[in-house]
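Many introductory courses stop at the sequence. We go one step further.
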Amino acid sequence: SPSTGPFTLACATVSIHPLPEWPALVAGYNRINAYGHANGMTLSAPAPGQAEYRMVIRPEHLSSPGVAHGGVLAGLMDAVLGAAALTLAFTTGELVSTVEFKINFLHPVRLGDELRAIAQVDHAGKSLVVCSGTIYRQVPGEAAETAVAQGLGTFNRYPA
């Protein structure tokens, strides 16, 4: 059964009962998402079970000259997969945590590249949620996006 009280994330309290309207819920999550703020990530979620993050590769994201560290992409993938699972779990007053995820790196990402990560719920069971996602790179001045990583994650559902 859904939680009847508020829960705390990143030193902020958010009430999810009664559930706020969808745009307010996503806006509230963006306000309290310290990891997203630290990495310049902005979440949008068109519907429960879907998520999109955007970010630009900054100097602090680099490992070798001009190339982003794989951990930055892994963090973005975990975040977007988890957000897709979380947007579904929120509808029943639940939260999620990562059980495991895998990522395939397809192309390097460079300083200034704009990333768009998308994910969706592929399976929602009673206790586990499975999501898949793709990170795309938009090079400034180029029209087409390029897929740079693909991922799959499993998340545990638990009461808020």
